[in-house]
Write a structure and sequence with these properties.
This is Histone H2A. This protein has helices at residues 40-44, 50-59, 68-95, 103-112, 114-119, 144-150, 163-169. The chain contains 7 helices and no strands.
Length: 170
């Protein structure tokens, strides 16, 4: 029967009586080069602070226990939604020949997107204003007289035909 190493055995052979943590890269006892600690946000590849969101979830009395992967998930969803809103608001600002995003641009971006508008239907944006909309019956009606004065060459064709054209068609 062949001897097998335990599952948690270190690939570097350690001297007896020593733990694998006390062995350096050369395999000798001594100080171990420690890795610089990475934040949970860095490990998840996120910009949003996972630790702060975890603390807020615990503080909010939503549930008894909060797992870390739940905090990572909430942070990633919030990051995605904010990136989506910022992209749409930047497009709205660019459409208005502006460089800086204002609350007005955020409102226009959210209300023009069906999914974000449904998600944020009860939200009031401070200094956002209102959505531009004019009812059709309030708009001035364009009459034939107004169209004729502006562009006489663009008039719609008339239905009347002369009697001489009718005789030659037959």
């Amino acid at each position: 029967m062949a001897k097998t190493k335990p599952r948690n055995a270190d690939p570097i052979d350690t001297p007896p009586g020593r733990s694998s943590a006390a062995v350096n890269a050369a395999g000798r006892p001594g100080p171990v080069a420690r890795r610089r600690p990475r934040s949970r946000s860095k490990r998840a590849g996120l910009q949003f602070p996972v630790v702060r969101i975890h603390a807020a979830l615990k503080r909010g009395c939503f549930v008894d226990h909060v797992r870390w992967n739940g905090s990572v998930y909430v942070a990633s969803v919030l990051e995605y939604l904010s990136a989506e809103m910022l992209e749409l608001a930047g497009d709205a600002a660019r459409d208005n020949q502006r460089v800086r995003i204002t609350p007005r641009h955020i409102l226009l971006a959210v209300r023009n997107d069906l999914e974000l508008s449904e998600l944020l239907r009860d939200v009031t944006f401070a200094d956002g204003g209102v959505m531009p909309h004019i009812e059709q019956h309030l708009l001035p009606k364009k009459t034939l007289f107004h169209r004729q004065r502006r562009r006489p060459d663009k008039l719609p064709p008339t239905e009347e035909r002369s009697s001489s054209e009718e005789d030659t068609d037959g």
